Amino acid sequence: MASIGKILRRTFLIGSVAVVGGVAFGAYKVRSPAPNPLKPGQGQAALNPFVMIDQNGVTLFAPRAEMGQGVQTTWAALIAEELDVELDQVTVLHGPAAAAYYNSAFVADGLPGKGYDTSDFMHNLGEALGVIGKSLSLHATGGSTSMKDGFIRMREAGASARETLKQAAADQLGVSRDQLKTQAGHVITPDGSKVPYGELAVAAASVDPIEAELRDPTTWTKLGQNLPRLDMVGKATGTAEFAIDVRLPGMKFATVRRNPKLGGGMVSFDGNEAKTMPGVEKIVDLGDGIAVIATNTWLAIQAAEAVEIEWEDAPYPPETDAIFQTLAKAFDGSPNSTMRDDGDVDTLPDGATEFSADYSVPFLAHATMEPMTAVAQLNSDGLQVWTGTQTPTFAQSRAAYVTGLETEQVEINTTYLGGGFGRRLELDFVEVAVKVAMAIPGTPILTTWSRQEDMRHDYYRPGAIARMRGAIKDGKAVLMDGHLATQSPTQQAMERITGMAGAGPDKVLVEGFFNQPYAIPNYRMSGYISDLKIPVGFWRSVGNSHNAFFHDTFMDEMAHAAGRDPLEFRLEMARPEWDVAARVLETLRDMSGWTGKTPDGVGRGVAFAYSFGTPVAQVIEVVDEAGTIRINKAWIACDMGLALDPGTVKAQMFGGMMYGLSAASFGEITFADGEVEQFNFPDYDAVRMHTAPQVDIQILETNRFMGGAGEPGTPPAAPALGNALFDLTGKRARTLPLSQHFDLLV
Amino acid sequence: MPTSLTINGKAHQVDLPDDVPLLWVLRDEVGLTGTKFGCGVAACGACTVHINGEAVRSCQVPLTDVDGPITTIEGIGTPDGMAAIQQAWVDHQVAQCGYCQSGQIMQAASLLAEIPEPSDAEIDEAMQGNLCRCGTYPRIRAAIHAASDKMKEV
Lengths: 746, 154
Description:
The complex is a heterodimer.
Chain A (H helix, E strand, L loop, with lengths): L1 H13 L29 E5 L2 E4 L2 E5 L9 H13 L7 E3 L11 H5 L10 H10 L2 H4 L10 H28 L7 E3 L2 E3 L5 E3 H8 L27 H6 L14 E7 L7 E5 L1 H4 L4 E6 L3 E6 L2 H10 L1 E4 L8 H10 L7 E6 L10 E9 L11 E7 L2 E6 L4 H12 L6 E5 L13 H12 L5 E4 L2 H6 L7 E10 L2 E11 L2 H10 L8 H4 L11 E8 L13 H19 L4 H9 L4 H14 L9 E10 L2 E12 L2 E12 L6 H21 L4 E2 L2 E2 L17 E7 L16 H13 L17
Parallel strand pairs in A: 3-4, 8-18, 16-17, 20-21, 24-27
Antiparallel strand pairs in A: 1-2, 2-3, 5-6, 6-7, 8-11, 9-12, 10-11, 13-21, 14-19, 15-16, 15-18, 19-20, 22-23, 23-24, 25-26
Chain B lengths: L2 E5 L2 E5 L7 H9 L17 E4 L2 E4 L12 E2 L1 H4 L7 H8 L9 H14 L5 H8 L9 H17 L1
Antiparallel strand pairs in B: 1-2, 3-4, 3-5
Helix pairs in contact in B: 3-6
């Protein structure tokens, strides 16, 4: 491990400068690569940015943020499947912030189009455009992209390293490469003896990398199986290291207190009393707030609360009602996008019955279990940061900007993330920790946000309003015309990261709204962007999180208005549009024993949402227990094409649904006097052990293109629960959270 | 004046104000970081440790109120020598982000000490103060039952 640390340290100093030399391969052979960030030392070989081998063994690099989705294990398995190493015999590291670790799938997901109707041409275009991620140094984890991104590239990395090691062995033994085999970290010679990869590493480094065919999936021994997760023992013994757990010699502990009127500045502060409190070392002026550095986090929090501060006002209306009135004004302008406009929604088809409904959903916090934390240490030659980030290269650039250092002088060490859900795509917690570190150069300082600070300074899932109009004829939907008004997380994030306002049609805003696979002849979906100044960001499934509630709840309302079974109603319109979606609904119907009828005291709701390439359908069952309603059972069917680790996929599907159910049941961020009114979990609760449903999950693998797993479980949860509560009570809730309309078990 | 604590069988002297919660003594003073900070108001259970064998929220126990030996997740078992309950957690692949799991395990260990064969209702009752945002509850339940079976065999 010490040698790896040294390599990474050297790597960050060298940064994007080519590091070819010694025994390093500078080039990753596949698609004219970014420079290899790994600079091996004596006796080591970095066969490409993802595989490094020395006398002590094999190290695989899985540069995707492990926030609970199991990505490091599956990513390493993609390499190991071709490299022929066992995961319990190798070291797996996240690696440094590096352009070589770009995400190739983000860009493809931004292409126009609904997704499910992707042609081969569009798919290939997406693959080709993926390299743009490299020129943007887009080293990031999000958008349910990791497996789409790594599926081919990582197997190629493993196969190339394997064949290169074999060539090195062949040269030494005077045999041809095809006479050699590989198994569990060894090259097997024709006489059956075994040469460990470690003994071949240096020789392999002088062999030109070899391209190799990828193995047939039927020969896989790791992919497609439930693999033991590499982080499991650490997480069961309290030894897995999150940013909040990093301990360094001479470390100090800090906390932050910034303007609760979000985006407002600080008029003045008086830290005279706080300065005299036990353990306090320094009060830092952050411009829009203060930080306290102390000998103990709790002492820092006490002192931060004792600082007298006069805040500026927020740049948005101070109360929730006025905020939603402002959002609704976006409908008065022209739409930012109308990505679906089929047929003619302005003419009611002959004999059709028109129907309309308005919906709204609240702002939401991410509320990761680990609050925002980062460690930073500023030295004369550079800055080191330890944090759980989904965007290491952006964090590196921001830290360089704040300190005035060169990017190459900033080292980002990515720890485990105590929950991400999109919150740790942001850079605020890195920036605060860096500013704190600048106050006492040479000292490592851990900045931990209190839960209150975390809850009240999020980049929230924006509140959103939908106006839906539809028409039914002969038991079918013949018209659907949806209008959505909300803030744009993408445009705000563009401005935060690049300093320039985003422009153009925002696809993320209307995902889950315009691209649902239903054959409705007159179908138009429009998105309107409000310029409200509340900080908003990417909340697990982003636009889909509100749009699925609007789209699918309205679908349910239309089914009932048409006197149809709600599952059959959806299925009938999905069949002609996309067979994969139809199969998911049929599977759900069969596995849940759906009949459309429930006994007294039991309600069932169905919902369907297509997001991140994966169609997901859910049935939720609720039961009335002496007037209190409990979520009893859930069924989930999904199809992401290929489930590389079915156990992990099921955990993501259930976890995604639970995140959605928590928000749908209890989640609401409201404002008074410009400040968020929720402080902590008692004000912003989630589903717990006794309120969680039992679940049954089926994964289909018929989708032509690989879909995501981390987010698609979330969107259908809110409509499925709302539809179930309607089935139970006859009462339709058009706003969230549902605990405002029903007596849900808490 | 320094306070004497027994943590995982070892004596420690700490010199901190009386009102500092045990959580922050463990994490920032003693360096035992397995016990997590989640909310600071006893609403999430991430900071659960045992005092005198009983599960408590360490964020709510001022140093001056610690009245017996403390056991943290590090005292239950280690990566090379896991306790039966930790092994059950690994066997059932419970953790996702993993941040709440130290607290979940400490709460579950205390439940099993009190009720060796808990029913689902007893698990609901004991575990509802421990929040998990990833949704690992079904596997936590299964791991508790498995640990219960394992501990019966011994």
